[in-house]
């Protein structure tokens, strides 16, 4: 085992896959000589050259289209969005091309494309740099979406995404790059369609993902001292949602709390509620509680920014209400 930062875990995954497969390459703004906005691609251009770690102009729609075209020819591009919010400029390419070409070509084309980069609410990055795009992309057919939350799952998920023959969006949180944890020295892969059981429990099920996993665990550590025993699932796979793992947990706890940084309206939590209510309503002993970000543009003001997203105390209060009132 070795302890590394999350950004280094991502860089290791890219380096290992580029070394193993010459069809893998990286493109995006400042990914080459600068090493990426958060140093995920640092020094890779020295090892692989400027054509495999390709600096692009500030034209998201163009280089996304180029990446999709190259994936059709057999290459395996990794597109870094300097900030995931900017990929809204490439929404047409991602939805109408990346998501649909394998289907509309009758299976003649594979689209082995990875789209990754920083997103989420940072520290005073402003509304345009604080987007949570999972809610935008979840309804597009043909895409897979995963969200990393630790150095361990960041590396394992990215390696699996690079090897997949379908377009995969990997969401990284801007405030998790400096998270440090142990990962194995040996190579490992993680599935792109499975949730992670973070903590076993019996009182209720808490579903979360990305940075909110750490808010949840901060709250859970306090709740355990108060006599509560929650079960925690890190969703990881945002599309498809691992409903089987959710149901397995609900059969034990019969109560559900969803904690997300996504917008409440049309977010990932909304989709989970819909699936549970449609097919597994009888498992619930209490109404589902959902803690999500406020449906407003993220303020630049630091104090206002904090109150737009979920905090650990809200999680504690919701658990106590859900367990004690049911």
From TrEMBL:
Q: Does the keyword Metal-binding apply?
A: yes
| Record domain Transketolase-like pyrimidine-binding: where | 4-179
Alphabetically list the UniProt keywords: Chloroplast, Metal-binding, Oxidoreductase, Plastid, Potassium, Pyruvate, Thiamine pyrophosphate
Which Pfam families does UniProt cross-reference here? Answer: Transket_pyr, Transketolase_C
Q: Which reaction does it catalyse?
A: N(6)-[(R)-lipoyl]-L-lysyl-[protein] + pyruvate + H(+) = N(6)-[(R)-S(8)-acetyldihydrolipoyl]-L-lysyl-[protein] + CO2
- Report which superkingdom the organism of origin falls in: Eukaryota
* SUPFAM superfamilies from the UniProt entry: Thiamin diphosphate-binding fold (THDP-binding), TK C-terminal domain-like
Cofactor(s) the protein needs: thiamine diphosphate
Q: What GO MF annotations does this protein's record show? A: metal ion binding; pyruvate dehydrogenase (acetyl-transferring) activity
Function text:
The pyruvate dehydrogenase complex catalyzes the overall conversion of pyruvate to acetyl-CoA and CO(2). It contains multiple copies of three enzymatic components: pyruvate dehydrogenase (E1), dihydrolipoamide acetyltransferase (E2) and lipoamide dehydrogenase (E3).
Q: What do we know about how this protein assembles, alone or with others?
A: Heterodimer of an alpha and a beta chain.
Q: What is this protein called?
A: Pyruvate dehydrogenase E1 component subunit beta
Organism, scientific name:
Caloglossa monosticha
Q: Which gene encodes it?
A: odpB
């Amino acid at each position: 085992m070795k302890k590394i930062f999350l950004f280094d875990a991502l860089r290791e995954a890219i380096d290992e896959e580029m070394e193993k497969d010459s069809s893998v390459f990286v493109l995006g703004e400042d990914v080459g000589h600068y090493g990426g906005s958060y140093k995920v691609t640092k020094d890779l251009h020295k090892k692989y050259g400027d054509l495999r770690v390709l600096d692009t102009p500030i034209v998201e729609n163009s280089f996304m289209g180029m990446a999709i075209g190259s994936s059709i020819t057999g290459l395996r591009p990794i597109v870094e969005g300097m900030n995931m919010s900017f990929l809204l400029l490439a929404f047409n390419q991602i939805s109408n091309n990346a998501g649909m070409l394998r289907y509309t070509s009758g299976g003649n084309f594979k689209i082995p494309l990875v789209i990754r980069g920083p997103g989420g609410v940072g520290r005073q990055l402003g509304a345009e740099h604080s987007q949570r795009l999972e809610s935008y992309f979840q309804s597009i057919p043909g895409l897979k979406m995963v969200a990393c939350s630790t150095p361990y799952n960041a590396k394992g998920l990215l390696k699996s995404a690079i090897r997949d023959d379908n377009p995969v969006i990997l969401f990284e949180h801007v405030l998790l790059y400096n998270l440090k944890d142990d990962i194995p020295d040996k190579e490992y892969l993680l599935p792109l369609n499975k949730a992670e059981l973070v903590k076993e429990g019996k009182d209720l099920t808490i579903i979360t993902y990305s940075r909110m996993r750490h808010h949840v665990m901060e709250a859970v550590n306090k709740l355990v001292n108060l006599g509560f025993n929650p079960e925690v699932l890190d969703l990881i796979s945002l599309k498809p949602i691992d409903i089987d793992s959710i149901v397995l947990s609900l059969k034990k706890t019969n109560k559900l709390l969803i904690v997300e940084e996504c917008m409440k309206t049309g977010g990932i939590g909304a989709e989970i509620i819909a699936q549970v209510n449609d097919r597994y309503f009888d498992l619930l002993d209490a109404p589902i509680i959902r803690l999500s970000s406020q449906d407003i543009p993220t303020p630049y003001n630091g104090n206002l920014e904090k109150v737009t997203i979920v905090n650990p105390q809200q999680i504690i209060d919701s658990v106590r209400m859900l367990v004690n009132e049911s």
